[in-house]
Amino acid sequence: MKLLKWLSVADRFTKTYLDSRFAPLGINSSQHMYLLKVCSEPGILQDSMLDIFYVHPSNIIRMLSALEKNGFLVREPYEKDKRTYRLYPTDKAKNICEQVQIICQDAEQMLMEGISEQEQDDFARILLQAGKRMAQQAGLNEKEDGFDE
Q: What is the pLDDT of residues 112-129, one digit of tens each?
C-alpha cells in the first residue's frame, strides 16, 4: 500500500507545482502534454492522441477544446477523414513551448533530486513497465508511440 500512497502523493504535489508554474502561461498541468505534442508535431491527428496519452477520448477532446478556446491551437478537418482533425500550434503556443519544457525539466529534477543517475534510469524503466501493465489491464493495447514517452 505504500507504493500507491506515495505515487498518489507525488502525483498530487507535482500537479500542484506544475499548475502554479503554468498558470501565468495560461495552461494547466492537464494541458501541457497536449500543447508540447502539438508544438513538436504540427499537423498531428487528434485521433493519434488516444495512442499517445492513454486517456478517455472525452478527456482528450476536453483538453484540446480548452487549448483551442484559449488560442493555443487550431483544429482543421483531416482531408482523408472528416471525423478527425489535424492539430496545429498557434504563435501563442509556440511562444510558451520552451518555457513549458523548462518547467517540466525543473519538476523532474525536483522529483529525482538526490537519486543517482542509475537509480533514475531504473526507476523510469520500472515505472514504464508498471504503466504498461496497468494500461493493458485496463484493456488498452500497447502502442509503440505512447509507451516510449
A: 999 999 999 999 999 999
Rounded Cα distance between 10 and 33, Å, is 18
Q: Quick check: is 148 in a domain?
A: no
Cα gap 120→124, rounded to integer Å? 6
> What whole-number distance in Å separates Cα of residue 1 and Cα of residue 9?
12
Cβ atoms of 65 and 73 within 8 Å: the answer is no
pTM of the model: 0.87
Rounded distance, CA 21 to CA 95, Å?
A: 16
For 49-75, the pLDDT digits (tens) are 988 888 888 899 999 999 999 999 999
**Number of compact structural domains in the chain:** 1
Residue 29 lies in a domain: yes
